[in-house]
User: What shape does this take?
Amino acid sequence: MIAILFLSFFALMIVGVPIAVCLGAAALLTVIYSSMKVSLLFAVQTMYQGINSYQMLAVPFFILAGNLMTNGGLSNKLVRFLSLFCARFKGGLANVAITASMFFAAISGSNAATTAAISGIMVPEMKKNGYDNSFTAATVAAAGCVGQVIPPSIPMVTYCVIAGTSVSTLFLAGVIPGILMGVSMIVYAVYFCSKHNVPVIKEEISAKKVIRTTLDCVWALLTPVIILGGIYTGFFTATEAGAVACVYATLCAFFIYHEITMKDLPKIFINTAISSAIIMIIMGCVSTFSFVLSMGHIPQIISKFLLSITTNRYILLIFLNLILIIAGMFMNASAAIALLTPLLLPTLTSAGISPYLVGIVIVVNLGIGSITPPVGNNLYIASDVAGVPFGALVKSVIPYIVMLGIVLALVTFVEPVSMLLPKLFGTGVN
Assistant: This one.
């Protein structure tokens, strides 16, 4: 049974079948050709159960909110505001790109959305001011990694649905790692710009301009405050926060910034539906896959095997990271989370590792995976926007991967980095 399940899954993946189909088809083939006495109706039932979750409603809400904010000019406002404080220093525009990505991450919940929104604004500006093209593309691609780490986060929602944990608590666990990721990238950007004598923008900033820009951007700056503040003060749940974000983004885009008209809505809704459907299909198929795993007691077999080798939590965490690094090179975050969580989580929790620590390690690792070839989504977005050859971009992004790898090590082995805020504020948070 194990052989049929995994051989069929990897065979389908190697020939280029979409990951969701690989999961569902492997589960069906296992039922058909093994001794399992299960009606094939289980596939429909388990797929429905996989997406019939209140928490999963957060996914389309946050995707729609991100699309509304991107098209509604909120990302432009954030960049303008941050440029006032960062652009005049060494590596200024690179730091603007990174900090803007961190702010936008607190709105969109997605690596790809963050990279696309910020690269479209920052790449032309950095090129115009003398930044190296490859470094520019690498910076916006790497900065997009924080999109799924700083809450709210779509991959975190996916993990919590599968693991049966609190979305809000995992959101808390992502705050410090996300900030550390941003800081580590700023350190490298400043070093690179100092070493290569990248020009510094010498623009006089008057108090009048600061006040005018701040007032113009205040509605965009309030967005993460409303989303996260509402969650942790108990006004609404993480799922309801997505709906609130959609309403707030609509009000800003239509009535404050006037960047969206009724003609723009069909395209925004279609893009949201497509992005949401991809995740929902994966979640449905992974539910079917997980059902077959549980019927065959495969997680228990894997857990027993690994724990017979070692019960040392640090060795198990190293093992987890190695698997995730490989998975991140070939899968997007949602697919990797859906596949690996039911397989590995029981083993790690049996060794006394918090499911929230496992979740944040997975999310950070797969965030870095978005800039590791051959399937690094952020790399392709940045390469296309900046017009930089993929090979040159990969070479330029390696230092960022190293810096983010250091943060990943801290998150993995220094538990307070991710668990401090959940332990202080997570109790009772839904």
In short: The two ends are 38 Å apart (CA to CA).
